């Protein structure tokens, strides 16, 4: 039974440009909520947002304050984030100059450096988030990253195991860290504001592409009862038809496994395996607990759309088509989720439901 103690948690997987899929799901959920009278920004819907990599970018955009908007307006709307993926990404995610030169000249003795130029992306992040820190978030925010200097996974925004507060980071640097995918971006150098030190971080997808269990752990650390949790977990699509032939893989050296021109096979396998295993284990855990309400939304995408770095307009059309199918296949589940969320908020503030215009 829904009550004032219910907490609604959002978790978003990593997946590069496939982040368009969870954005489409959020767009559909937002519309359903407005139709039911809950017309409010998502930072006022979810009590905790967690994200890895592109999911971290989305979660931070929805949870962070807009630099010019005070405490009432998020850094980005779902529509603005969708525009980032569909129209702005090709300008922001540009190959490094050395990569372009090697491709142009064609040096057979030196494979092209596949990494992207981080500077346009960093400029975008500074414009989007300014110099506000994670402590200023409009709702609780958790981002995954990996500290390569100290060889440890990090849950940025989460409290410490000993009960001490979370270390604080600039939001733009935290997003740069969670999206620092090896073979695409160089590591991020970020400032730990609490410890007054610099840290070298990479994408949290190297250890936890689906951050659902991290979000659950943080919710429990905050003292939220398992039976009060409503967890909404969004995947970025998977391509079961895209395998890697033994005859090809047996000839690859270490570089080939990470080369973006081949679709970064090791990265693709690791992120899909972690998301698949994570959602499977989360589903089993929550089923055994018998109290957590768990909604996982994901679906198949065409093999050609799996490349997380493909920002071409044609791929955006393919991803939107896949998102359309996922939404159609989950119409009833999304309706039920919207009904549940509205009921939870109605129990909290019965007079607080805004009627959709």
From TrEMBL:
A motif (DGA/G) lies at residues 203-205. InterPro entries: Acyl_Trfase/lysoPLipase, PNPLA_dom. The active site is at 53 (nucleophile), 203 (proton acceptor). A motif (GXGXXG) lies at residues 14-19. Keywords: Hydrolase, Lipid degradation, Lipid metabolism. Gene3D superfamilies: Cytosolic phospholipase A2 catalytic domain (3.40.1090.10). Residues 10-216 form the PNPLA domain. This is Phospholipase, patatin family. It comes from Polymorphum gilvum (strain LMG 25793 / CGMCC 1.9160 / SL003B-26A1).
